[in-house]
Design goal:
Length: 148
């Protein structure tokens, strides 16, 4: 299959999935718009743009089919406009995301993650120590088990 063609809903749906790695296909209407197809079957739209330093920036727009081709083309045009103005769309998206996070939300997320981690660690510790505790100490009194 050719690497450059006009992106349509049907053409993107029919793109083959590679055995390993990724394939990149380029739109003929918007030359910087690409569709990346991974070996897992994921298809995503992105914009490639060379910077003044000579590096290539990739701005991921979204996944197909939740993002239709028409919307991907619109977003590609706006991303290319922002890049031409010297704005990095990826950095702007990251800044908006961080501005939306409050200290309370961050703390709640941390505590939820910590709670899950502690619960998992306690479960592992209990499984490891249960046989030793049960076999040798089943009939002993609590007072005799105390070390103080």
């Amino acid at each position: 299959m050719e690497k450059r063609f006009k992106f349509t809903q049907q053409r993107i749906e029919k793109l083959p999935v590679p055995d390993k790695g990724r394939f990149e296909y380029y739109d003929t209407e918007i030359s910087k718009l690409i569709c990346r197809v991974s070996s897992t079957g994921n298809k995503s739209f992105a914009v490639l743009k060379k910077t003044d330093e000579g590096t290539t920036k990739r701005v991921t727009l979204g996944r197909f089919p939740s993002m239709p081709v028409a919307l991907a083309k619109e977003l590609a045009q706006s991303a290319l406009t922002e890049i031409a103005k010297g704005v990095n769309p990826t950095e702007e998206k990251r800044k908006r995301r961080y501005r939306a996070i409050s200290l309370e939300g961050l703390l709640n997320q941390y505590l939820a993650d910590k709670k899950t981690y502690v619960r998992k660690q306690l479960s592992i510790t209990a499984r490891r120590s249960e046989p030793a505790l049960v076999t040798g100490s089943r009939c002993r009194s609590i007072k005799s088990l105390a070390t103080w």
